[in-house]
C-alpha cells in the first residue's frame, strides 16, 4: 500500500556529517531512501516508478500527487514530435523522436504493472489548413519536414475529408504524420499511482522546504511544517491555494527530514519558484498558461488527432476512445494564473468549429487551465546539477507527456548511447553560465 512516513525525532546514523534540523522540525524517517522525488505530476511519478522497478527504495514528496493542479491534468497527451516540429527547435525534435520510440514499451510496462488502460493510440496526426494563407504556410512546413527526412504525406482537402469525414468542406489541404501517437495523461497518472502503490513507494503529503547537505552533497530534504508556507512561494504541484500542506492524505508529517542518496526535483512550473534551493541550482523555469476544453459525445467523432491553422491561429482536437474530445490550447505568459477565461474558451471553440463544425453540438464536459514549465530555450532540464546528489526533471514546456519515457531513461541511466541527448537537456548548460 502507499504509506506516509511517521514522525520520528531521530536522524539515520547511516549518513554522517549532516547538519541538524531546527528543533521545531522533527526528523523523519527511520532509514534513507535511494531516490526521493519532489513533485507528484506525471514526470515525477514516472521517475519514481522507474526507480522502484529497479528495486530502489523510493519516495515522492507532494501535498496531493496527480491533482488537478498538475500540468498533466490539463494536458491533451499528444505524442507528436513530427507534426509539432518548428523551424527553430530541431534539438527538441531529436528529443521527441527518441522518446516516441520508447512510448510503446513504456505504455505496455505501465499497463502491466498497474492493471490500467492508458488509451494509448497510434493512429497518427492529421494537420490541416483552413484558408489560402494557412495552406501556403503548410506548404512551407511540408518542405521543411521533407528536408529533415520526416515521414509525412501531403494531402488535398478531399483526401483529408476522406480520412476524417467530419472535417469542414472549407479545409484546403493537410499533412498526415502517421507515426505520431497520443495518450490520456489522466489515465497515465492514475496508472502510475496504482503501480507505485503495488511497489510500496512511499508518498509523503507535504512540501519541500530545504535541502539537507553534507558539505556540498545533497543528502536529503527538509519538509515544511503542516499548515504553513515556508517561503511565500506559489503553491507546489497538487497544493490548492490556501490549503494546509499535509492535510490531504491521512496523518501528515509535521515537518522533518527525509534522507536520500539522490534527490530529483520534478515540480513542473513550480520548480523555478523553489526559493529554498541554493541560487546556483534554481532552474530557469517559468509557468506558461494553457487553457483546455473537453467535450463529450457517445462515440468518437474523429479517428486521428487533428491539428489545424485557421487564419494563422492554431488549435488541436484530440479524440479519446470513450468519446471525449480535447480542444486546446492557448499559450499565455501570465505567471501562476490558472483562471479559465471566456475569451480563451471562445478562441478554442471558434477555430475548432471552422475545422470540425460538429464540435458545437457536443456536450461540454470540462474546462481547465494548466501551467506548462517553460525554459529560455524550450528544452527540458534533465539530469545532475552542480550539487552532487541533486538532479532536475523539469522544464518540459508543452512536451512533458511525450518526453516522459526519455526523461526517466536519462535519469535512471537507461538511455544507452545517448550522450548527445543528455547534453541537450543537461541543467549544467544554464548553471555553468551562472
Architecture overview:
The protein folds into two domains: 33-72 and 187-284 and 377-431, 3-Layer(bba) Sandwich (FAD/NAD(P)-binding domain), CATH 3.50.50; 125-178 and 287-374, 2-Layer Sandwich (D-Amino Acid Oxidase, Chain A, domain 2), CATH 3.30.9. The protein has 434 residues and is α/β, with parallel strands linked by helices. The strands form three sheets. Strands 1, 2, 8, 9, 10, 11, 17 and 18 form an eight-stranded mixed sheet that branches. Strands 5-6-4-13-14-15-12-16 form an eight-stranded mixed sheet. The protein has helices at residues 42-53, 71-74, 90-114, 132-148, 157-163, 185-198, 342-355, 400-411, 419-424, 428-431; strands spanning 33-38, 58-61, 78-79, 125-129, 153-156, 173-177, 181-182, 202-204, 208-214, 217-223, 256-265, 286-296, 305-310, 313-319, 324-328, 363-374, 381-384, 390-394. The protein is built from ten helices and 18 strands.
Q: Which class best fits the helix and strand makeup?
A: alpha/beta
| CATH homologous superfamily annotation of the largest domain | FAD/NAD(P)-binding domain
Estimate the mean pLDDT confidence.
86
Number of domains: 2
Q: What proportion of the residues is helical, as a percent range?
A: 25-40%
Termini gap: 43 Å
Unreliable spans are: 1-29, 228-234, 237-254
Q: How many DSSP helices?
A: 10
CATH structural architecture of the largest domain: 3-Layer(bba) Sandwich
Domain FAD dependent oxidoreductase: 34-410
Keywords: Oxidoreductase
GO molecular function: oxidoreductase activity
Region (Disordered): 222-253
Amino acid at each position: 500500500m502507499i504509506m506516509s512516513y511517521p514522525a520520528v525525532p531521530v536522524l539515520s546514523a547511516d549518513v554522517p556529517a549532516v547538519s541538524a534540523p531546527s528543533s521545531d522540525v522533527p526528523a523523519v524517517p527511520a532509514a534513507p531512501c535511494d531516490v526521493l522525488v519532489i513533485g507528484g505530476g506525471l514526470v515525477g511519478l514516472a521517475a519514481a516508478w522507474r526507480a522502484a522497478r529497479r528495486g530502489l527504495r523510493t519516495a515522492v514528496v507532494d501535498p496531493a500527487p496527480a491533482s488537478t493542479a498538475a500540468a498533466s491534468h490539463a494536458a491533451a497527451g499528444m505524442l507528436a514530435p513530427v507534426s509539432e516540429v518548428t523551424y527553430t527547435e530541431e534539438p527538441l525534435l531529436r528529443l521527441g523522436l527518441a522518446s516516441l520510440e520508447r512510448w510503446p514499451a513504456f505504455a505496455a510496462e505501465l499497463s502491466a504493472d498497474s492493471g490500467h488502460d492508458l488509451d494509448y493510440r497510434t493512429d497518427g496526426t492529421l494537420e490541416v489548413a483552413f484558408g489560402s494563407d494557412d495552406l501556403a504556410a503548410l506548404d512551407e512546413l511540408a518542405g521543411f519536414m521533407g528536408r529533415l527526412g520526416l515521414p509525412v504525406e501531403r494531402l488535398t482537402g478531399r483526401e483529408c475529408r476522406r480520412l476524417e469525414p467530419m472535417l469542414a468542406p472549407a479545409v484546403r489541404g493537410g499533412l498526415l504524420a502517421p507515426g505520431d501517437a497520443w495518450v490520456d495523461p489522466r489515465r497515465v497518472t492514475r496508472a502510475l499511482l496504482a503501480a507505485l502503490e503495488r511497489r510500496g513507494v512511499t508518498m509523503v503529503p507535504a512540501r519541500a522546504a530545504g535541502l539537507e547537505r553534507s558539505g556540498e552533497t545533497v543528502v536529503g530534504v527538509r519538509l515544511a511544517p503542516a499548515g504553513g508556507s515556508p517561503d511565500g512561494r506559489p503553491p507546489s504541484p497538487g497544493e490548492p491555494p490556501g490549503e494546509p500542506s499535509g492535510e490531504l492524505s491521512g496523518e501528515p508529517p509535521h515537518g522533518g527530514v527525509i534522507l536520500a542518496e539522490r534527490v530529483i526535483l520534478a515540480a513542473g512550473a513550480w520548480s523555478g519558484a523553489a526559493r529554498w534551493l541554493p541560487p546556483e541550482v534554481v532552474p530557469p523555469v517559468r509557468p506558461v498558461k494553457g487553457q483546455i476544453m473537453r467535450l463529450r459525445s457517445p462515440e468518437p467523432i474523429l479517428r486521428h488527432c487533428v491539428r489545424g491553422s485557421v487564419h494563422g491561429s492554431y488549435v488541436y482536437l484530440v479524440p479519446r476512445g470513450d468519446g471525449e474530445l480535447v480542444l486546446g490550447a492557448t499559450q499565455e505568459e501570465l505567471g501562476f494564473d490558472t483562471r479559465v477565461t471566456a475569451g480563451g474558451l471562445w478562441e478554442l471553440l471558434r477555430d475548432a468549429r471552422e475545422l470540425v463544425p460538429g464540435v458545437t453540438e457536443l456536450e461540454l464536459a470540462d474546462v481547465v487551465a494548466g501551467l506548462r514549465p517553460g525554459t529560455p530555450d524550450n528544452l527540458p532540464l534533465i539530469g545532475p546539477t552542480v550539487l552532487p546528489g541533486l538532479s532536475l526533471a523539469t522544464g518540459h514546456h508543452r512536451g512533458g507527456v511525450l518526453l516522459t519515457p526519455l526523461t526517466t531513461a536519462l535519469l535512471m541511466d537507461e538511455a544507452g548511447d545517448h550522450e548527445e541527448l543528455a547534453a541537450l537537456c543537461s541543467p549544467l548548460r544554464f548553471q555553468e553560465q551562472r
